[in-house]
């Protein structure tokens, strides 16, 4: 599916280098390419990429678009053919790609109910294996952000009564987010926790917008009675959705007041569970010693309540990592939504975007996530020096940047191999994701760090696993300069794996030119 945006001034649905050369050529797509809904119409009506709708239709089909989600091509393709902007063979090519997929599905083989896929229904979706997969995906997606004490995991023996509080504490449909099918069945967070221990339930707010504080007093009363308190807060599709942008990073309405007052009233540990698709500035909770643990669950799907409870009570050892940076609220005032630059600009005060370029304070960094176990990394083997072979036909080394163009290097199979030992010194078995970052040599225009490799490994308590890591030099140790040229900087590259660093010095070697 091609999207609405332009890359280098060309809409993705009208870009033959993307659709024909890359997707169907390099990636060998054996199927059809469809537009995001009305994106062809958008690049004509809104972006004014072409002067006429017929030109827009012709550009899309000639670029390699096969199917339009929307009416634009149905209305304007005939006109494009009549005006000579498009050949009938171009239309036939798009039709071929679409019909070929339908044929492979058996849609032209007579009675569809007798075909392989003709009788699919809920029984095929809601199999035990599929529902277990949904639960496991929810478990693995949960990220433990804070755990002082540690207060987690909870114990059914010590925490015989748990107060479950918050506008997302007993939700179902909220957990599947958007673009979801019909769930096979739901387990809400309240239901999941109730399987482990006795619960006292108070919503605290009527919904996530939490526009008044009328229910906070009852929530505080529940926290005073319980051995532990779990606050399940956050957002839903009324706050963040397609065509509905958030206007801030804080918890909506009176949610922060609810969390703070309940934590103050709670006689046992207070756990904050956040349900959302995007980051939330919960700096107040990170700093509050009365809020001992914070967990982010995303929108965890139909089995979210079971997964949340399994993590809170230690049946599952969390191993998730944040897929985005959690910025502070004041970051928004420094980053105009009309500025798309990634790199920071000291002259204008622009701080940059993403963990790769932004160096300011954050609530939680990209890749953050802790566990009930402690993992220690050791680089068991890795080169200190690595040579990049360069085609001798080029002036290969830029004297100003001391870097080699990727297109001038012999990149085939050019990977740095590391052997990393991961030791679990905790008391619980756990899965651990190694995130390998690289910092290029000092003085380069590249990011201050970037993710170059990752690997997930299960390590039983008290044991050690050796994990092979391969880093493709041309793909992942290169950076893009200010002119958009991807280069490999020569010199010391610093590889970070947790608290461990490994230095690799990259140098070049000029290959001879073979003349026929």
Concise structural overview:
This protein has 516 residues and is α+β, with helices and mostly antiparallel strands.
Task: List the keywords.
Immunoglobulin-like; 22 strands; about 525 residues; five-stranded mixed beta sheet; single chain; about 25% helix; 3 domains; six-stranded mixed beta sheet; Rossmann fold; 14 helices; alpha+beta
Topology, pairings included?
Layout: E1 6-7, E2 10-11, H1 16-26, H2 39-45, H3 53-63, H4 72-82, H5 88-104, H6 122-125, H7 128-141, E3 143-147, E4 161-165, H8 189-194, E5 198-202, H9 216-225, E6 228-234, H10 255-265, E7 270-275, H11 283-287, E8 291-296, H12 304-312, E9 326-327, H13 354-357, E10 362-364, E11 375-381, E12 385-390, E13 397-398, E14 403-405, E15 415-424, E16 430-439, E17 450-459, E18 464-472, H14 473-476, E19 479-480, E20 486-489, E21 491-497, E22 500-510
Parallel strand pairs: 4-5, 4-6, 6-7, 7-8, 12-22
Antiparallel strand pairs: 1-2, 3-8, 9-10, 11-15, 13-14, 14-20, 15-18, 16-17, 16-21, 19-20, 21-22
Helix pairs in contact: 2-3, 3-4, 7-12, 9-10
How does this model look, in words?
This protein has helices spanning about 15-25, 40-45, 55-65, 70-80, 90-105, 120-125, 130-140, 190-195, 215-225, 255-265, 285, 305-310, 355, 475, and strands spanning about 5, 10, 145, 160-165, 200, 230-235, 270-275, 290-295, 325, 360-365, 375-380, 385-390, 395-400, 405, 415-425, 430-440, 450-460, 465-470, 480, 485-490, 490-495, 500-510. It is of the alpha+beta class and about 525 residues long. It is globular, with a radius of gyration of 27 Å. GO terms for molecular function: alpha-L-arabinofuranosidase activity; xylan 1,4-beta-xylosidase activity. This is Beta-xylosidase 2. InterPro entries: BXL, Fn3-like, GH, Glyco_hydro_3_C, Glyco_hydro_3_C_sf, Glyco_hydro_3_N, Glyco_hydro_3_N_sf, Ig-like_fold.
């Amino acid at each position: 599916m091609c999207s609405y945006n332009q890359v280098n001034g060309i809409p993705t649905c009208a870009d033959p280098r993307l659709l024909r050369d890359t997707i169907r050529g390099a990636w060998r797509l054996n199927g059809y390419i469809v537009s995001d809904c009305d994106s062809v119409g958008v690049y004509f009506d809104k972006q004014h990429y072409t002067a006429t709708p017929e030109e827009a239709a012709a550009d899309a089909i000639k670029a390699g678009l096969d199917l339009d989600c929307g009416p634009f091509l149905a209305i304007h393709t005939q006109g494009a053919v009549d005006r000579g902007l498009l050949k009938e063979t171009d239309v036939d090519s798009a039709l071929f790609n679409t019909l070929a997929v339908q044929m492979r599905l058996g849609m032209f083989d007579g009675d569809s109910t007798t075909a392989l896929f003709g009788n699919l229904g809920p029984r095929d979706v809601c199999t035990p294996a599929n529902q277990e997969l949904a639960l496991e995906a929810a478990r693995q997606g949960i990220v433990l952000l804070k755990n002082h004490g540690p207060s987690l995991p909870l114990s059914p023996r010590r925490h015989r009564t748990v107060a479950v509080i918050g506008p997302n504490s007993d939700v179902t449909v909220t957990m599947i987010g958007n673009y979801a099918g019909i769930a096979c069945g739901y387990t809400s967070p309240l239901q999941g926790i109730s399987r482990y221990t006795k619960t006292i339930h108070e919503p605290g707010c009527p919904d996530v917008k939490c526009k008044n504080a009328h229910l906070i007093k009852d929530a505080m009363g529940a926290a005073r009675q319980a051995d532990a308190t779990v606050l399940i807060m956050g957002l839903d599709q009324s706050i963040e959705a397609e065509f509905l942008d958030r206007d801030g990073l804080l918890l909506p309405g009176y949610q922060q007041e609810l969390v703070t007052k309940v934590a103050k009233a709670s006689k046992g540990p207070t756990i904050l569970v956040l349900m959302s698709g995007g980051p939330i500035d919960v700096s107040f909770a990170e700093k509050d010693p009365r809020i001992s643990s914070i967990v982010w669950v995303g929108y965890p799907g139909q089995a979210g309540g079971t997964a949340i409870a399994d993590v809170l009570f230690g049946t599952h050892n969390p191993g998730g990592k944040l897929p985005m940076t959690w910025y502070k609220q004041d970051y928004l005032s420094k980053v105009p939504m009309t500025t798309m630059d990634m790199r920071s600009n000291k002259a204008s005060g622009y701080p940059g975007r993403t963990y790769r370029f932004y160096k300011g304070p954050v609530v939680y960094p990209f890749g953050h996530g802790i566990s009930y176990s402690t993992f220690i990394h050791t680089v068991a083997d890795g080169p200190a020096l690595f040579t990049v072979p360069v085609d001798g036909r080029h002036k290969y080394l830029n004297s100003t940047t001391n870097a080699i163009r990727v297109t001038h290097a012999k990149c085939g199979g050019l990977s740095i191999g590391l052997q990393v030992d991961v030791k679990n010194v905790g008391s619980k078995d756990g899965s651990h994701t190694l995130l390998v970052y690289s910092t290029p040599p000092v003085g380069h225009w590249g990011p201050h760090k970037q993710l170059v490799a990752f690997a997930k490994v299960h390590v039983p308590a008290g044991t050690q696993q050796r994990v092979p890591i391969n880093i493709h030099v041309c793909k992942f140790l290169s950076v893009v300069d200010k002119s958009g040229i991807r280069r490999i900087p020569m010199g010391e590259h610093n590889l970070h794996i947790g608290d461990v660093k490994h230095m690799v010095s990259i140098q070049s070697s000029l290959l001879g030119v073979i003349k026929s």
